[in-house]
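Our collaborator T.R. sent over the components below with a one-line note: 'Predict the complex.' Nothing else. No constraints on interfaces, no templates requested, no preferences about which chain binds where. So this is a plain run: every listed entity goes in together, and whatever single assembly comes back becomes the starting point for the next discussion.
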Amino acid sequence: MNIKILGAGCANCINLEKAARLAASELGIDATFEKVTDYADIASYGIMRTPGLVVDEQVLLAGRVPTAAQVKELLAPLVG
Amino acid sequence: MTIATAPDTRPQSIKHWGGLLLAAVIWWVLYLLNQPFWDWLVGRVFGLDLTSRLGSGVQFFFLDTVKILLLLAGIIFIVTVLRSFMSVERTRALLGGKREGIGNVLAAGLGVVTPFCSCSAVPAFIGFVASGIPLGVTMSFLIASPLVNEVAIALLLGLFGIGPTLLYVSAGLVIAILAGYVIGRLKLERWVEPFVFETKLRGKIIDSTAGLTWDDRIQMGIEEVGSILRRIWPYLLVGIGLGALIHGWAPQDFFARYAGADNPFAVLIAVLIGIPLYSNAAGILPLIDALYAKGMPMGTLLAFMMATVALSLPEMILLRRVLKPKLIAVFVSVTAIGIIGVGYLFNAIL
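Returned assembly:
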């Protein structure tokens, strides 16, 4: 599973990454994490508010920082 | 998605609403008791003469700190919850296809109500422009958003009442509309970084506010209060400290003499000082409160505040990624001219 965090480095993106990592480890997912900070790339995903969560090239969430539990809910259906 | 519902949803919601009501009551009580409490503490317990410089400065400091914290917490919470019903994606959908003029008005209005942090300025800009929204309309949105912000509204309301607050909001909107319109008319698309127009928006457009429950919204409100307060408290203390100094030590009509309504350059100078200043509304307003009490006219003060809040070096640096320097210069100048005009206008009519 490829997880991308879209954001230019403000606190929200860092928190999203933390939540995503926690969720992935709790679900036992072996995921590669990438940080996308280039604005052109970020915008090409169609999101307008950072932070953004992209899993396997699908935008799952944008514009707010979810709790790890909420990220788990988003990731769970994609496992297996 | 799983459809497991929490078994105790209703009691939890009632608990949340009850908690909210309690918080509101506590807030009111604290707000009303604020002044009498500090009068008592500083005047009786510390034994300072409240009419002396030290006494009134100290009292101002504590009084304003508590009052501003209460106002900020209250308004940020309410505005965040209200804004959770609105999203930048929906704004873009609403603006798509509107021509200039009408588009500018809509964009400015939406800029005020759409949740927006400055780190999203660039993605939002790209998102708007790449989807076909005219440059001028996008500019109206970008100007209105930081210019008319809820922190400033909260503080103006608490410190000066509804009149100046309404003036500020309408002035901000008018400036955003006109500046955006002018920039649009100047046909400056060639001064936007080319990659913006070439950005392909692929993937589904995610609406970040879909599916939020009331509990989610309340949670967001609380988090936003915490996050904003954590970010601005140094500015706040500096602003209140400066305000307290002015309050206690500057002679009563000091500013009226040098920067009063009969000084034709006052607004110009105030705006020129305000533009490079990087502060947020919370830091500036206590200062403005004290300056006003010492005789500076409201028009000049509002212009100063708007110049500080609407234009800042960090934002310009961010925008450099998508705007060529000439366009940034035009953006700053047109906005500044608008603010200066508003300052003179208000001084004339107030």
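Summary for T.R.: Chain A has a mean pLDDT of 80.
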